[in-house]
């Protein structure tokens, strides 16, 4: 039987198939399968007569040295890596093209080079002149970073094996690298995998830290960074809305640190600026005085982050009302809407609902539930929420507001930024020493209470201000005055 080494490999996730098909069943992407010769990537099994060597088995207890780390000189970057780059580790930084990966790494490498480390920056994408131009723009031309525009992994490994071992090597990007050992074209899954493997081997052997840059692509023209995610020690994604200045670095996987920390940056004309107090940034352009906005006191990793949730609830002209959400979980929104409808008598089936997290942040905490609910009800009844209040608490399916972790940290951050009151779960008030933040605490135990409070404030304020909205207001909102 002839050995068939050709197969169809998804350029997004790396799944292999015997024949071509339109959709990858593994990741669900369309039109991402490409024919590849996978023979080179399959290691030839060598039959060995050698008897295995014996090794010592260890106990769980015992002293191991801490992972040796190198600070990048950027606090926000160090926060996400868990305190700096670990020697001999390989880190993948993924993100959309143009988001600022090269800028971030140029800044970090320059700072480390200035601190006296041997740092090598290999650009497979840009010519040396372009990289220099960027460094000039960032005011970092004098940093002793060693630069090359190369794409052959064998050449890179040979060059770097000479002289002292570099402390850090940046490969920008892994998709432009190619190795002689496989036949496929650069950018295909097989090439990207084989190149990454060779570089990872080099890192483990020499103790140099390597950062691989990977572009995220939707069209499947080049292999996505997902195909190397499982091979590297840490995966970081650099995110942000193209139109906004904020950039968020998030750890997706980290063998040497936490995965819930975020680093916040702002893209300026002079490169990326670290944002040490994200709350100030996210609240800097607040829309004071409009209904439908609530400030959520959240926690990102170890750091409290205050962010504004914006909701718009408007009568729909469609058969099926729209539910659109940016920066939060769609199913979480559906759940909050269902609880509002089932337990609080808030009918939203005739309304389009839009929810947006300001500033381009993505929230993963269930603690944002009541902030979202408050913003939604506020928009529905056209009643502005108090501008000096923060909201946090999880909503259960029964409409009860459940406590969340780290109440004191949330309250302290809110007090620091000048907020005067907090709407929070009942049980959180007594339990922890949360009163010393100096906020007035409005503890609510059920969503019904919160909805009634917002509705009452709305009907008190503007009987005449929103005649159109009155029809949309459920009967119970119009009733309860005082
Ligand atoms: P870049 O780092 O090249 O992105 P990536 O490597 O992720 O593809 O950044 C590209 C964008 O950043 C580009 O649109 C210009 C912008 N930029 C600034 O706004 N200010 C700067 O100082 C620099 C260097 C880039
Ligand atoms: Mg780049």
UniProtKB/TrEMBL annotation:
Top-level taxon in the UniProt lineage: Bacteria
Renumbered to this chain, motif RadA KNRFG motif spans: 253-257
Q: Where is this region: Lon-protease-like?
A: 352-482
What are the RecA family profile domain coordinates in residue numbering? 66-216
Q: Where is the composition biased (Low complexity)?
A: 457-468
Q: Which UniProt keywords apply?
A: ATP-binding, DNA damage, DNA repair, DNA-binding, Hydrolase, Metal-binding, Nucleotide-binding, Stress response, Zinc, Zinc-finger
HAMAP family in the record, alphabetically? RadA_bact
Relay the domain remarks: The middle region has homology to RecA with ATPase motifs including the RadA KNRFG motif, while the C-terminus is homologous to Lon protease.
Question: What name has this protein been given in UniProt?
Answer: DNA repair protein RadA
Q: Which organism is it from?
A: Bradyrhizobium campsiandrae
The gene name reads: radA
